[in-house]
Structure prediction request, 510 residues.
Amino acid sequence: MPVPHDAPSDEERLAELGYRQTLARSMSGFANFAVSFTIVSVLSGCMTMYGYGLTTGGPVMISWGWVGVGLMTLFVGMAMAEVCSTYPTSGGLYFWAHRMAPERSRAAWAWFTGWFNVLGQIGVTAGVDFGAASFLNAYLDLQFGLAATPGHTIALFGAILLLHAVLNTFGVRIVAVLNGVSVWWHVVGVLVIAVALAVVPDRHQSASFVFGRFVNETGWDSGAYVGLLSLLMAQYTFTGYDASAHMTEETRDAAVAGPRGIVRSIWTSWIAGFVLLLAVTFAIGSYPAALASPTGVPPAQILLDALGAGAGKALLLVIIGAQLFCGMASVTANSRMIYAFSRDGALPFSRVWRRLDPGTRTPANAVWLAAGGAFVLGLPYLINTTAYAAVTSIATIGLSIAYVIPTFLRLRLGGRFERGPWHLGRWSRPVGCVAVGWVAVITVLFMLPQVRPVTLETFNYAPVAVAVVLGSAGLWWLVSARRWFLDPGHPRNAAVDAGAVDVMSSGETP
Prediction:
């Protein structure tokens, strides 16, 4: 949908929303899409959660669950994109909530939306880079005999986070180039893997196996419950597309490019993921061998069994490369959310996290907070065997709630909502209602126990992480933040209202 000729410029629209242009606005619409597509990353989410899918529902839920969840995610994303077009800011979701909530409670809506978004973003960063560490450990085990132990995986996890923090701090131009490369890496990688798995193996599983075989290795008796739990694989993969919203202050023609980036990243991932999942599932040789793989990564075993050691390890490197791209982009988007939230004073030590590097005009300190927070979230893997599923649950719950709160508030506004140049027209309300209903279901679902019996080693600690963050944010809100958060008249916000940003070279507010 074209932008009207009398539409304000990106900088003018940002000023109307109360912020001065401080980030470098150099990103194209394709680059904006590339960040979200890279973070959604079917070669990351689908592959790292594939083993979870094999034990929780099996092939039938891997196939049909992907189709159903993808459709629901498209509804959520379209509803989000419509709001993004009206409010193209790095703060994204929490800023949208503030603008659309009832006047007396708008600051509270924004506060909790922002905290859920921060939790989800850090969870995604942890999940992506932890998955990359697991696959890298599997490759190193195959190639050099580095056993896939929790200690080794955590060490690799920390090293990957360090790499991504360094790249986002000192290699900003490199990151921009790599995000563009990442799109084609994912597309070509999926096609190469799919073709290889279709052509090389002598035999494949039947269609009845791929689309009808149900497997339950969770310990729970209810097939319906296990089938619902299995949706986490697809729903976790379909997270991170809010990156297009967080990057709008760095994107040209943001009111159109941002929404398009959100929606395009979802439907392209939906298609690519379905092709990838079908290829891998048809190529399963021995189901028990995949589950019991000494690498700890079932897709690696499937590749090895179907293609042989050489080709299997080569394609494993393709997957690892995609995961590294994904983690790099996740740190980028995560840091922008932290920067924006800190710009409004909403995080402890906000003045530190909102500082920009004077040379690159990027939030370098926020990058390191994103990486450090993700590392802490992954540490329980040392004592908890289901830690990865818990981390993905945390990411999915936090982001889904943050995604849908602005949609809920937009529905309450009805005809009073001021549409941007990208909108859904008469479909806005039905799409929004489906989105809100879906998120309500999965928020409860992914907090439930995933394995039986429930012990310290199998406990799903997602509710604990959500409760800690929500409780801390709630306490801070009651004690202090409700008096000043997003209140332009409060002295604490004077610098922010003036558009000031701390610069790391001087350490003082300009």
Remarks:
- Residues 64 and 211 are 7 Å apart (CA to CA).
- Confidence is low (pLDDT under 50) at residues 1-5, 495-510.
- The two ends are 39 Å apart (CA to CA).
- The longest strand covers residues 56-57.
